[in-house]
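Case study 2.
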Amino acid sequence: MIRQRRTLEGEIIPHQIYDMELPHLRNDQLFFPQPTIVEHIINSRSPLYGEQNNRLIIYRDYQSYQTYPIEYQKQEINKHIQILQQWLENNIEKDSINDETG
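Prediction:
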């Protein structure tokens, strides 16, 4: 997982790399040929440990989930993934604004 991090001194590190355990992948499967749901348990070893629910993306029908970009080796797949992620970000932001004002 790659995400922004702020140091104790206040410096922002834009691309901090964190390891995430994904326990149910078969044979260390790295390529997902079709949509795949992966599970990450948030415990004291998780990079998400200590995050507050209001900082995570919340879906009405599910518990708290957060999306992260996935990059593939082939550039054409990355382009499609970027388009999908931009669409999701735009729609999730609109839903969040509506939830806060409603």
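Confidence is low (pLDDT under 50) at residues 57-65, 95-99.
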